[in-house]
Amino acid sequence: MKAITQRVSSAKVCIKDKTYASIKKGILAYVCFEQDDNEEVIDKFIHKILNYNFFEEDTSIMSANLKEIEGELMIISQFTLAAITKRGNKPSFHKALDSKSANTLYNLLLKRLSDFSVRYKSGIFGADMDVHSINKGPVTFLFDI
Known about the structure:
Strand content: 35-45%
Low-confidence stretches: none
Mean pLDDT: 94
Distance between the termini: 5 Å
Oligomer: single chain
Structural class: alpha/beta
């Protein structure tokens, strides 16, 4: 599983020119499931995203996590994170998990997030979405779980 996370002041997802979901201060996470991923990566991702120190408290040191600042989480599925871009000018997606299995894991991720005391929103798996965000910092991290 790969995830690109951005600390945001706000983020929203629009589908067919209508706002589908939005968050205020928190984390925007683009997630991609790859071949050989299973339910275990979901638990690792949730633990990481909820406990990672993305935010500053009283100092300029990142020492606070999403739960501590009572922030929100936006999850967007993005299979293009699995792209292999080292050679040529056309991306290869053979490392991405097949769509049906990835959708199953994505829905399981959303279900498991409901078990935690974090406010989250999501896009729609496979939909054509416009994602708007204000990256705070900017702070962006790539996780390979």
